Amino acid sequence: MGKIEWAMWANEQALAAGLILLTGGIVGVAGQFRGWEFASYAIAAGFFVCMLEYPRSKRAKGTSVERTGQYCFTVCVKAFGPVTRNYYVRAFLHAALCVPGGFMLATVLGCVCLGIASLIYLAAAVRGEHWEPILPRKDTRKPVAESIKSPPQNPPPRPPPEIRRKQAKDVEGAAYDNPIAVTDE
Amino acid sequence: MANWIINNGFPAVMVVVWMTLNTFLFVWYYLYYDQDESFYYTRHLLGSALAWARAPAAVLNFNCMLILLPVCRNLLSLIRGSFVCCSRTMRKQLDQNLTFHKLVAYMIALMTAVHTVAHLLNLEWLNNSKLGLYDELSTALSRLEDERNETFLNPLQHIDADPQQRPTHFAFTSIAGLTGVLITLSLILIITSSMEVIRRSYFEVFWYTHHLFIVFFIGLVFHGYGRIVRSLQDEPLHNTTLCKDRPDDWGKVPECPIPQFAGKEPGTWKWVIGPMIIYVCERVLRFIRYMQAVQYRKIVMHPSKVLELQLRKKGFKMEVGQYVFLNCPSISQLEWHPFTMTSAPEEDFFSVHIRSAGDWTDKLIDVMQKLPEGEQGPKMGVDGPFGTASEDVFDYEVSMLVGAGIGVTPFASIMKSIWYKFKESDPKLRTRKIYFYWLCRETHAFEWFADLLQVLEKEMEERGLGDFLTYKLFLTGWDQGHTNQVIVHFDEDTDVVTGLKQKTHYGRPNWDKEFDQVRKENPASVVGTFLCGPAALAKVLEKKCAKYSDVDPRKTKFYFNKENF
């Protein structure tokens, strides 16, 4: 598995974990479970993880596929600079975020999934990966080639005026020999 | 509309039948658990969450049974082969096995979510009942334990933990809870590693993680062994209507004996044992095929990092356009990768053209390049051949073959087979006309295929059969350099890029023009369209097939087939 960018899988896992944490939290709060404070924390943490993980990173090699509408998230995540760029930070962040989820059953699954995502991010960080924003490409126009300088200054060669007048009336008589060769020999 | 029915009718019917069965199971079991008298007391503790947990469980049983079947490729091959009547329509639909597998997987994920949420509610309410927070009846029911002459109803027994941790404690110590957590976790990992992004780029992660399904199925079978969903037993007769308001009198009054509860026998194994056995047979068959000896006849390195392997295996019989799975233990023990065969069945060997497209293929090309002249390559396991839509190409009077880039490989096999069949005047050949469209981005990839086309071109001219095969090559990645070349050589007889008589077209084909031409040249015919290429092109062609088809038998009908990889 040499070429794999672990961060891609960690990202999918973390997004799924965020959703599961969020769902577990909602169930805990809506059902007024014992320990609902942990559930409300899970809603906030789950939501935060989803926001953080939604924008996909640009791949080091190959084409990156964006998630629908991820551009605004990309801008927000990019604004935090090195904190969101570095995967060690993300790994420890997810590890820390997942701990309170372990204190009630509704959020335990989210906790474990986020923990796994944290481990995969750690693997990604160890391999030197980092998060790159996918930004829209600015198309640079190719610089105009050397041979195209300024438009021609002189009009194309035309026969002298009396021949031109003749051309209008008598086509055959208007034929003449060009002083400069115009055929491609 | 009629054309949609011709091309998509059967899969649509299958999906409708499947959804109907799912809905039926859900509603049936929901009503059973919500209304059956024997669950009266259970419902008192759990409310409707009981039915909400059991109904998805039934749907899960059904879908876990189905999910293993579409990936048993040997079984599917067998079924495909046995359809003698309606062969064309039936065989086409069995190609959509992977789509069905994914659909079933989504249903499993959804039902797991519903089931888990319902059980979260159940455990919380059982916990509260045990702590005596609800009415007298709930407290009395929860107090029943597995001692004296009693049987329990509330499975949260003897837990000495902090009340908030009791559900978690139960989840991780009971059979149902532990297996439940394990299989849900496996399912989540399987799903995240199967996302298209991961699957297309890092096949190995997808493949290895997917084997967590073994954990999933083992956990699934044992999930019900705790028998914690309990119903009121008939012996001794306990009348709920009379006795529900007098829990203090239970055991003291003759008409209200202490209620006895028991859980149902675990039933999931009955659903999944069949497919599990079939799948095990499938894997055993793959292993047997892997053990069979494969010899290398020739190894050729083509330009643009394309490797051609010509192999021989005893007893190997193939048909046009089929594919095989290759496994090279020296590169990876567990990975099997699919490759379409590029040789014709009439040859005494089979060949594959492998393009550099990831870890495994790169390593294979590397190993082959380092091999000294004339030596046998590393041990190779071959599973197959497996059939796809390409087999049907000779059944159509007129065929349109569209291959994009490396997707031309099944058609290489077909064209070679045509060449052989024509030489032998094979009566099985129903085809009178073939239109071949090859779309490619760059010129290098042409070279290994150009030889084949040159030979065909020559043969056809020699026999005066120029009409049989019309091919058009489209170079979609052209640039100024190409244009200059073409301008300079335009009046030459052969094409500057391929050396073939038919000129290369530049840019993408105008499909409306192409379909129109085919329709004009072949009125009252059934035309089969075959594509091996990207999904976007499939959508375009499918639309055109529908647009130019006519249900009227006197007019042309287009059928669309797609090979998926």
From TrEMBL, chain A:
<comment type="subunit">
    <text>Component of the phagocyte NADPH oxidase core complex/cytochrome b558 complex, composed of CYBB (heavy chain (beta)) and CYBA (light chain (alpha)). Component of the phagocyte NADPH oxidase complex composed of an obligatory core heterodimer formed by the membrane proteins CYBA and CYBB and the cytosolic regulatory subunits NCF1/p47-phox, NCF2/p67-phox, NCF4/p40-phox and the small GTPase RAC1 or RAC2. Interacts with NCF1 (via SH3 domain). Interacts with SH3PXD2A. Interacts with DUOX1, DUOX2 and TPO. Interacts with NOX4; this interaction mediates superoxide generation.</text>
</comment>
<dbReference type="Pfam" id="PF05038">
    <property type="entry name" value="Cytochrom_B558a"/>
</dbReference>
<dbReference type="GO" id="GO:0046872">
    <property type="term" value="F:metal ion binding"/>
</dbReference>
<keyword id="KW-1133">Transmembrane helix</keyword>
<keyword id="KW-0479">Metal-binding</keyword>
<keyword id="KW-0249">Electron transport</keyword>
<comment type="similarity">
    <text>Belongs to the p22phox family.</text>
</comment>
<feature type="transmembrane region" description="Helical">
    <location>
        <begin position="91"/>
        <end position="124"/>
    </location>
</feature>
<keyword id="KW-0349">Heme</keyword>
<keyword id="KW-0521">NADP</keyword>
<feature type="compositionally biased region" description="Basic and acidic residues">
    <location>
        <begin position="161"/>
        <end position="172"/>
    </location>
</feature>
<comment type="function">
    <text>Subunit of NADPH oxidase complexes that is required for the NADPH oxidase activity that generates, in various cell types, superoxide from molecular oxygen utilizing NADPH as an electron donor. Subunit of the phagocyte NADPH oxidase complex that mediates the transfer of electrons from cytosolic NADPH to O2 to produce the superoxide anion (O2(-)). In the activated complex, electrons are first transferred from NADPH to flavin adenine dinucleotide (FAD) and subsequently transferred via two heme molecules to molecular oxygen, producing superoxide through an outer-sphere reaction.</text>
</comment>
<dbReference type="GO" id="GO:0043020">
    <property type="term" value="C:NADPH oxidase complex"/>
</dbReference>
<dbReference type="GO" id="GO:0048246">
    <property type="term" value="P:macrophage chemotaxis"/>
</dbReference>
<keyword id="KW-0560">Oxidoreductase</keyword>
<keyword id="KW-0408">Iron</keyword>
<dbReference type="GO" id="GO:0020037">
    <property type="term" value="F:heme binding"/>
</dbReference>
<dbReference type="GO" id="GO:0016491">
    <property type="term" value="F:oxidoreductase activity"/>
</dbReference>
<keyword id="KW-0813">Transport</keyword>
<keyword id="KW-0472">Membrane</keyword>
<dbReference type="InterPro" id="IPR007732">
    <property type="entry name" value="Cyt_b558_asu"/>
</dbReference>
<keyword id="KW-0812">Transmembrane</keyword>
Automatic annotation (TrEMBL), chain B:
<feature type="domain" description="FAD-binding FR-type">
    <location>
        <begin position="286"/>
        <end position="392"/>
    </location>
</feature>
<dbReference type="GO" id="GO:0042554">
    <property type="term" value="P:superoxide anion generation"/>
</dbReference>
<dbReference type="GO" id="GO:0046872">
    <property type="term" value="F:metal ion binding"/>
</dbReference>
<dbReference type="GO" id="GO:0016175">
    <property type="term" value="F:superoxide-generating NAD(P)H oxidase activity"/>
</dbReference>
<keyword id="KW-0408">Iron</keyword>
<dbReference type="InterPro" id="IPR017927">
    <property type="entry name" value="FAD-bd_FR_type"/>
</dbReference>
<keyword id="KW-0560">Oxidoreductase</keyword>
<dbReference type="Pfam" id="PF08030">
    <property type="entry name" value="NAD_binding_6"/>
</dbReference>
<dbReference type="InterPro" id="IPR013130">
    <property type="entry name" value="Fe3_Rdtase_TM_dom"/>
</dbReference>
<dbReference type="GO" id="GO:0043020">
    <property type="term" value="C:NADPH oxidase complex"/>
</dbReference>
<keyword id="KW-0479">Metal-binding</keyword>
<dbReference type="Pfam" id="PF01794">
    <property type="entry name" value="Ferric_reduct"/>
</dbReference>
<feature type="transmembrane region" description="Helical">
    <location>
        <begin position="205"/>
        <end position="225"/>
    </location>
</feature>
<dbReference type="InterPro" id="IPR050369">
    <property type="entry name" value="RBOH/FRE"/>
</dbReference>
<feature type="transmembrane region" description="Helical">
    <location>
        <begin position="51"/>
        <end position="72"/>
    </location>
</feature>
<dbReference type="InterPro" id="IPR039261">
    <property type="entry name" value="FNR_nucleotide-bd"/>
</dbReference>
<dbReference type="Pfam" id="PF08022">
    <property type="entry name" value="FAD_binding_8"/>
</dbReference>
<feature type="transmembrane region" description="Helical">
    <location>
        <begin position="12"/>
        <end position="31"/>
    </location>
</feature>
<keyword id="KW-0812">Transmembrane</keyword>
<protein>
    <submittedName>
        <fullName>NADPH oxidase 1</fullName>
    </submittedName>
</protein>
<keyword id="KW-0349">Heme</keyword>
<dbReference type="GO" id="GO:0006952">
    <property type="term" value="P:defense response"/>
</dbReference>
